[in-house]
Amino acid sequence: MQVLFHQDALGLLDYAPLIDYLEACHRQPPARVGDSYTGDSSGNGLLARAGFALGAGLGIKLATVFPANIGLPSVHTVYVAFDPSTGEERAVIFGNALTWFKTACDSALAGRYLARPDATHLLMVGAGAMAPHLIRAHRAALPSIELITIWNRTPARAEALALELTDLSADVNTDLRAAVESADLVSCATMTVEPLIKGAWLRPGTHLDLVGSYLPHMREADDDAISRSRVFVDSRNSAFDTGEIAVPITTGAIADQDVLGDLYELGTGAVPGRTRDDDITFFKNAGGGHLDLMAAQYLLTRL
Asked: Which of 68, 112, 208, 286 yields a CA-CA distance of 20 to 30 A from 105?
């Protein structure tokens, strides 16, 4: 059995090849998945996500989420891969690298279908651990992106991230509305409960990528944002349980059928992605055991 630690995985993962690998996997029959969450009233919890691709892969990710952590990541994960034929343990992968790359490349794959191919300006909302990976993955999928703007509730964290991205043209904007209004692609990775992104700020042609909300009460964008958009998700099996989709359905801002497709349908061409330059596109990155399984399989092929 293989044992991989965080630095091992970081050395084996790369954005562009993983995006291509995820795209190929989404052209195959969907994996069977099962999720569970146990948490307390403060938002601390344990998430388990299992995936089983018949004859191809079997595994489960365990992730703790502690949003109030100071000096430590808010998320800690371990992935266990099993042989899909015998059930034997194949590998244990410690650390957040697998989750960072899987999540970022999930959004970047959607951007390949939904963002304007000539997009040049990416706004990153949030400056946590996911932010640099989302920035680099989106640039791998859309090489036309030249300008990176970062917004964070605490400007000092945005400034620190901009300095960290020494090979990119990154700046900080403390005016979220102005930053959204000028961006071609807006990617959000926050732990907010109240929506930060207002639909009125989205200009025609914008692609909105929402990553942070993972519980039914969490939202990064308001009803106006989703009602103005062509709406897509990474998986119909997981996205409808997030506040980003469930709440606007409850309020009547959208109906179930307004979710036009997921990455399986986009990948096989069953539904079209961006159809016009002035489309506003909305993508909910909800994750799921199938994506963790795909990323783990990719990582094992790199050993």
From this structure: 68
Q: Supply the Cα-derived Rg of the chain in whole angstroms.
A: 18
3-state DSSP of 91-142: EEEECCHHHHHHHHHHHHHHHHHHCCCCCCEEEEECCCCCHHHHHHHHHHHC
pLDDT in tens, 262-277: 999 999 999 999 999 9
Up-side HSE of residue 239: CA atoms within 13 Å toward CB? 23
- Please state, in angstroms and rounded to a whole number, the distance separating the CA atoms of residues 187 and 190: 10
Tell me the CA end-to-end span of the chain in Å, nearest whole number. Answer: 12
- Tell me if residue 45 falls in helix, strand or coil: strand
Query: 53 near 293, Cβ under 8 Å?
Result: yes
pLDDT in tens, 52-88: 998 889 999 999 999 889 888 888 999 999 999 999 9
Percent helix, strand and coil across the chain, each rounded to 5? 35, 25, 40
Q: In the Cβ-directed half-sphere of 209, how many Cα atoms lie within 13 Å?
A: 33
* Per-residue buried b or exposed e for 223-255, using 16+ beta carbons within 10 Å of the residue's own CB: bbbbbbbbbbbbbbbbbbebbbbbbbeeeebbe
Give the closest residue to 188 by CA, choosing from 127, 274, 121: 127
Tell me which residue of 117, 162, 122 sits closest to 138, measured CA to CA: 122
| Closest residue by Cα to residue 149 from 191, 183, 112, 177 | 183
User: What is the token pair recorded at 195?
Assistant: 């929506």
Give CA–CA dist 115/268, Å, rounded. 18
